[in-house]
Amino acid sequence: MESKLEFSIKQGAPDKQRCACVVVGVFEGGKLSGAAKILDTASQHVLSDLIARGDMSGKIASTLMLHNVSNTACERVLLVGLGKLSDLDNKASLKILRSTFAALNATPAKDAILYLVDEGVGKDASWVIQQAVLTASEQAFRADGLKSKPSKAAILKRITFATLTAPSAALKTSLNQATAIAHGMALTKTLGNLPGNVCTPTYLATQARALAKLHKTIKTTVLEEKEMKSLGMGSLLSVARGSEEPAKLITLAYHGTDKKQKPIVLVGKGITFDTGGISLKPGADMDEMKYDMCGAASVLGTIQAIAEMGLKLNVIGVIPSCDNMPSGSATKPGDIVTSMAGLTIEILNTDAEGRLILCDALTYSKKFNPDTVIDIATLTGACVIALGHVASGLFSNEDQLAKDLLAAGEQAHDRAWQLPLWDDYQPLLDSNFADMQNIGGRAGGTITAACFLSRFTKDYRWAHLDIAGTAWKSGKEKGATGRPVPLLTQYLINRASNNQTGINK
Length: 505
Known about the structure:
This protein has 505 residues and is of the alpha/beta class. The protein has 2 domains: 6-162, Leucine Aminopeptidase, subunit E, domain 1, CATH 3.40.220; 182-501, Zn peptidases (Aminopeptidase), CATH 3.40.630. The protein has helices at residues 34-42, 46-52, 90-105, 125-140, 169-193, 201-214, 225-230, 234-240, 294-309, 354-364, 381-387, 399-412, 445-454, 485-501; strands spanning 6-11, 22-27, 63-67, 76-83, 111-114, 158-163, 218-223, 248-255, 264-268, 270-274, 314-324, 336-338, 344-346, 372-377, 392-396, 416-418, 436-437, 461-466, 472-473, 479-480. Strands 7, 8, 9, 10, 11, 14, 15, 16 and 18 form a 9-stranded mixed sheet that branches. It has a 6-stranded mixed sheet with strand order 1-6-5-2-4-3, with helices on both faces. Strands 12-13-17 form a 3-stranded mixed sheet. α8 packs antiparallel against α10 (354-364).
């Protein structure tokens, strides 16, 4: 459940701020940041005295909460260790931000003013603001929408980023964008965490229509199974055959600029529950297959974010959605189906179903005359083996598109890693009885899955993100992560900026 955090930015002196808590930094060795120096002077050296006694070393991510500091207007002052200035990279900055908000959330403070943006916490102030917003939002998020007694909500409600000099227009824009991204991630996580008996294809369609009601720039359409059949989507419909839940093909069209501008199409895998079908998965951890629609959820979250930003870009979301269930009518291993592209597919494993719904959605995407198509899918367990839970797998039929997505991932700290899409792997999909088979064997499973999709994307610039390792966490921290909404939104922000400056990519 999304927490209603409010974010703002302003200029002001730290000793004059009337709030529950003011946050300032201390470098390793006891050197005070600019804002901390002002507080130290106003309080007649309370901060420097504490440092001299050894109460605060400035070690990275260390914290010390002070109460009723003399000659200040705030109730509390939180000192945060910034470590060595020379060591402040992105990893260190994130550690500082997580520690800061953990300390704030451990207090009764309802509001806080942070002097961290221009205090050396990261080289890029805009990046710091974005990561601070996402960190605060992550700690405030609660995945308890279906509990009879919801968890205690975060007390912290209002966060202000303060600067000693007037904040730039770029910082204000970054704050607005970060807030929108946080809202998009919250939607993605909320949808991902819902069980399969709630979040059905029909439910996803309802959420897509709700977005269109919320934003006039979004138009939603939903195709039913009869319409999909008439379009020849035999591959997609073959996955839905075993389920009593009707399949949906959901389209969200966001128009943020001249309709003549070619759209970027985001295709999200929407398997709302994946048993594996007749190729039944093992029972252990099968409950996590409710997350097999996180690609679809990320498309919804991304479109919500860019609509909230008012991004000057045209983006279309295409979500093929169904359940993959075993039954007397379910598709069987060895069955051959015909895709919308007219290519026949021998289904050797019904648990390789994501590519079967995506291939028809990718063919359908051609109707929009796209500039670029990006599909997002929890596609292969092999990607988890290859990259773990740190990076999403990336494939593309164009080097520049791959570079742009990798760069956006680095900017947003939502990283991806490119894997090869060489023709050498294509023969592994050869079938004796159809144009192709839906699996290529155990070896290189992530790559052969991408190779399968590539056969349906020859008419446009295309990239594939395999998010099987990054879309959710297991164990004690079990839950959807909201990734890759930051990566996708940053890519779209960059594209909109390039369009405005006349740079073509």
